[in-house]
Design a protein that fits this description.
alpha+beta; Aminopeptidase; 2 domains; twelve-stranded mixed β-sheet; 35% helix
Length: 322
């Protein structure tokens, strides 16, 4: 069971990919492990009176749920806020790669094989890629991955590329020393074009960072690297699962063998300012979702996404996995 830890959780008031305002709340936090039994409701938080040192409540990520929860409700003296409910996708690695491939339709298998063949031909016949899992290799991985990350829209607009701080790299090196990290880079000749970094928690690989060079979108380099990495992981046979974490991207559903309903749940002290933060955050989310729906109806959503991802409306944007 994972332990509680205290941190400042940012409540971001966003409009599409732009953050308009961030308000941090100091909370006790924990995540429910992919293979961890669902905790009882009473185990998720303590009485309000026991919160001290400026703590405003509790936050639980990846909580398995049986039914859809109300977005805002009152539970045990708290304002319970559920901003995200999603299908948690993951891959069961306790099988062979051959058995795993049977989950795909013949059409999908043909599409994946065609993407690999297409990229191999583009590279002159062979795909060059590398796995980084030993401590001395990790710094080289981050050097290559950072070069790709700087080109992605996640880093340009959202400041959400792969971390490059010395502290983060040392943490990754420590994980690798304990065989708790896998990192991958896909190349075109000597140029890195895609990366994937997965720390390991309780025998489960966590899909933490994937990025690809937007100039190589048409070659589906993110998908190519994901497939090659999965094939190797099945051959290694030492991990229990591959966890795609929260979010509902198409490529996660494509590669997953299992899905379960999960939610991110906040238990917040019901003070006037906290009520304002929670209700304001929910209202902004609703407005942002409404705006996204309208731009799709108006036929401009794809153009806006291309502009955000590539900086121009002339490039075709691919799925998250490339």
């Amino acid at each position: 069971m994972k332990h509680w830890h205290v941190r400042k959780v940012p409540f971001k008031f966003q409009l599409s990919d732009w953050t308009l305002l961030t308000i941090p709340l100091r909370l006790k936090c924990r995540s429910i492990g992919l293979l961890e039994p669902r905790p009882l409701e009473a185990d998720l938080h303590d009485p309000v009176a026991e919160l001290r040192d400026g703590l405003q409540g509790f936050m639980v990520r990846a909580l398995p749920v049986e039914n859809e929860l109300a977005v805002i409700s009152h539970v045990g003296g708290y304002l319970r806020y559920v901003p995200l409910q999603y299908r948690h996708c993951f891959i069961d690695l306790n099988q062979t790669f051959e058995d795993y491939q049977k989950k795909f339709s013949s059409k999908t298998r043909s599409t994946l094989n065609r993407k690999l063949k297409k990229y191999a031909e583009f590279c002159g016949g062979n795909i060059r890629w590398k796995t980084y899992k030993e401590r001395p290799e990790i710094r080289d991985f981050f050097c290559l991955a950072s070069a790709v990350s700087k080109l992605t829209y996640q880093e340009k607009l959202l400041d959400a590329g792969i971390p490059g701080s010395e502290e983060f790299i040392r943490q990754a090196e420590n994980l690798a020393q304990d065989n708790k990290a896998r990192a991958y880079v896909l190349f075109h000749e000597d140029r890195p074009v895609a990366y994937l970094f997965c720390p390991v928690e309780d025998g489960v690989l966590v899909y933490a960072y994937l990025g690809y060079d937007p100039e190589y979108t048409k070659w589906s380099v993110g998908t190519v690297l994901q497939w090659l990495a999965l094939e190797q992981l099945f051959l290694e046979g030492i991990f229990k699962a591959f966890d795609f974490t929260e979010g509902q991207a198409d490529h996660k559903r494509l590669f997953a063998t299992h899905q379960k309903d999960c939610a991110n749940v906040y238990f917040i002290k019901p003070s006037p300012i906290n009520r304002l933060i929670v209700h304001g955050h929910h209202s902004m989310d609703n407005f942002s979702g409404w705006l996204g729906t309208k731009t799709q109806q108006w036929g401009i959503k794809s153009a806006v996404k291309r502009l955000l991802r590539t900086g121009s409306t002339g490039k075709k944007a691919d799925a998250e996995a490339g």
